[in-house]
C-alpha cells in the first residue's frame, strides 16, 4: 500500500516537472499572484496624483485661478410704481398710496473687441509642478442707445444720473492692475460688489463703476469704451460673447492649447515659438440670449468660450497608463521564458519565475519615484534599463549561456520601447497598441508552432507514458 502511494507521488512529481500543462498552470498562477502588488502600485499612483492635484490647486489658488470675464454692461436704474390701499384704523378711511420701486435694466455693448496676450510659466512646490500664466487683456467697443420701448418704460421713470457700468469676472485675487474704464474720453474706476457665495462654479464676482456722467450715456448715439486688465491665472481663460458683434483674439506661447466652449475658433495658427494664435468672431444671432435684460442678469456661464491651458500627459498619467500594461509585460516575459524552457529543455524553478515577476513589478515603483524628481523620459529610461539588465543577468545564471539571455534582454527592451511609444501617442494610441499586440501574437504563434504539446496527432488524445 505504501509502495503504491510512493509510486503515485513519484509519478505526480515527474509529471509536474516535465508536463507543459503543469508549467503553464504555475506560470498562470504566478501571473495572477503578481497582479496583487501591481494593483497596489496603481493605487499608489492614484494617491500620488491626488496629492499632486491638491498641491496644484493650492499653488494655483495663491497665484490665480481660472479666468471667466464678461463686460462691460450698462446698468440703468428705472422706477416702477404700484398703487396700494392703506386703511387707517383711527379715521376708518381707506386711502390710495403710490409706492416707487427701483429696478434695473442691463444693456450689452453693440461691439466688443478683446485682445488677450498670455505668457505662461511654471511653479514648483516640493516634487510637484504646475503651469500658470500672466494674461494681458485689452477690450474695446461701443454702446448704442438703450431701448426701453420693449417693456413700455417711459423715459420719465429712467434714472439716468445713477447709471453705472458692470464687469463680471472670476479670479479677483489674480487681478494685478487697477480696474479703470475709459468711456467717451472719461475714465471711471470700479469697486467690488460683494455678494453671498452660492454653489455656482465658477463664482462670478461683480465690479461696478461710479455713476456715469450724463454726457457719456449713449442716449443720442454711440459711445466708445476701452479698458485693460492684467491677470495672474491658471488652467483657462474664457469669455462670454455679449456684444452684438464680438471679436476675440488670443495669442500665447503655450504649446498644447485646448479651445473649448460652444463656439469654435474662426482661425487658429501655430506661432514660430510653438505657441498659438486663435480668433473668434460671433454675432448676436449666434447665441440664444438677448442684448438686454430687465430686473436681473441670468447665468450665462454655459455660453462661455476660450482656451484651456492643459498638460496633455503629466508624469502620473503616463505612469498610470504604463502600469495598465503591467499584465501584458509580465505575461509576455513569462511566455518568453516558458518557450525557452520548453524548446531548450532547461529547467526553470517557479521561484525563479517569481523573482523575475517581482523585478518586473519593481519597474513601476522605480518609474514613479524617479519621475517625481526628473522627467518621465529619464525615469522610464533609468527604470527600464535597470530592470532589463537585472533580468538579463539573472537569466544568464539560470540558462548557463548568453544566447537566450541576450534574446530576453532584447525582447524586454523592444517591449518597453513599444509601451513608451504607445503612451506618448494621443490620437493613434489605440491603433498603435492594437497593431503591436497583433504582431506580438503572430510572433508567439510562429515561435510555438513546433512545440510538442504531448498529444498524439493521430488519436488526438494525450500520450500516456508508462
UniProtKB/TrEMBL annotation:
The keyword Membrane applies. The chain crosses the membrane at residues 20-41, 325-344, 351-370, 376-394, 406-423, 429-447. The keyword Transmembrane applies. Coiled coil: none annotated. Keywords: Membrane, Transmembrane, Transmembrane helix. It holds the Pfam family CreD. NCBIfam families: PRK11715.1-1. PANTHER family: INNER MEMBRANE PROTEIN CRED. This is Inner membrane CreD family protein. It comes from Kordia algicida OT-1. The lineage of its organism: Bacteria, Pseudomonadati, Bacteroidota, Flavobacteriia, Flavobacteriales.
Amino acid at each position: 500500500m505504501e509502495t503504491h502511494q510512493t509510486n503515485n507521488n513519484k509519478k505526480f512529481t515527474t509529471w509536474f516537472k516535465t508536463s507543459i500543462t503543469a508549467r503553464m498552470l504555475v506560470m498562470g498562477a504566478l501571473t495572477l499572484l503578481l497582479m496583487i502588488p501591481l494593483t497596489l502600485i496603481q493605487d499608489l499612483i492614484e494617491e500620488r496624483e491626488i496629492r499632486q492635484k491638491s498641491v496644484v490647486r493650492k499653488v494655483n489658488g495663491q497665484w490665480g485661478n481660472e479666468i471667466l470675464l464678461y463686460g462691460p454692461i450698462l446698468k440703468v436704474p428705472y422706477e416702477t410704481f404700484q398703487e396700494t390701499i392703506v386703511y387707517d384704523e383711527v379715521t376708518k378711511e381707506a386711502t390710495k398710496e403710490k409706492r416707487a420701486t427701483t429696478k434695473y435694466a442691463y444693456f450689452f455693448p453693440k461691439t466688443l473687441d478683446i485682445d488677450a496676450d498670455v505668457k505662461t510659466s511654471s511653479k514648483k512646490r516640493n516634487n510637484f509642478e504646475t503651469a500658470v500664466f500672466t494674461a494681458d487683456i485689452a477690450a474695446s467697443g461701443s454702446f448704442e442707445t438703450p431701448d426701453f420701448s420693449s417693456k413700455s418704460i417711459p423715459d420719465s421713470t429712467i434714472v439716468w444720473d445713477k447709471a453705472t457700468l458692470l464687469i463680471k469676472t472670476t479670479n479677483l485675487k489674480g487681478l494685478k492692475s487697477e480696474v479703470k474704464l475709459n468711456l467717451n474720453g472719461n475714465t471711471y474706476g470700479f469697486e467690488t460688489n460683494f455678494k453671498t457665495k452660492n454653489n455656482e462654479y465658477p463664482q462670478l464676482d461683480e465690479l461696478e463703476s461710479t455713476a456715469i456722467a450724463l454726457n457719456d450715456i449713449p442716449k443720442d448715439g454711440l459711445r466708445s469704451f476701452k479698458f485693460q486688465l492684467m491677470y495672474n491665472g491658471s488652467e483657462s481663460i474664457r469669455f462670454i460673447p455679449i456684444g452684438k458683434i464680438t471679436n476675440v483674439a488670443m495669442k500665447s506661447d503655450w504649446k498644447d492649447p485646448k479651445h473649448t466652449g460652444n463656439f469654435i475658433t474662426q482661425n487658429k495658427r501655430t506661432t514660430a515659438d510653438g505657441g498659438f494664435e486663435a480668433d473668434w468672431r460671433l454675432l448676436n444671432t449666434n447665441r440664444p440670449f438677448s442684448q438686454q435684460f430687465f430686473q436681473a442678469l441670468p447665468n450665462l456661464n454655459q455660453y462661455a468660450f476660450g482656451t484651456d491651458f492643459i498638460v496633455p500627459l503629466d508624469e502620473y498619467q503616463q505612469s498610470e497608463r504604463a502600469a495598465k500594461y503591467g499584465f501584458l509585460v509580465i505575461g509576455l516575459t513569462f511566455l518568453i521564458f516558458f518557450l525557452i524552457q520548453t524548446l531548450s529543455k532547461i529547467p526553470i524553478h517557479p521561484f525563479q519565475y517569481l523573482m523575475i515577476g517581482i523585478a518586473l513589478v519593481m519597474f513601476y515603483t522605480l518609474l514613479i519615484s524617479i519621475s517625481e524628481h526628473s522627467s518621465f523620459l529619464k525615469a522610464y529610461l533609468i527604470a527600464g534599463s535597470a530592470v532589463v539588465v537585472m533580468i538579463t543577468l539573472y537569466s544568464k545564471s539560470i540558462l548557463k549561456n548568453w544566447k537566450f539571455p541576450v534574446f530576453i534582454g532584447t525582447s524586454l527592451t523592444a517591449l518597453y520601447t513599444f509601451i513608451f511609444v504607445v503612451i506618448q501617442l494621443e490620437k493613434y494610441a489605440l491603433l498603435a497598441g492594437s497593431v503591436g499586440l497583433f504582431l506580438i501574437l503572430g510572433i508567439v504563434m510562429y515561435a510555438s508552432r513546433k512545440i510538442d504539446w504531448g498529444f498524439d496527432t493521430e488519436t488526438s488524445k494525450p500520450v500516456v507514458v508508462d
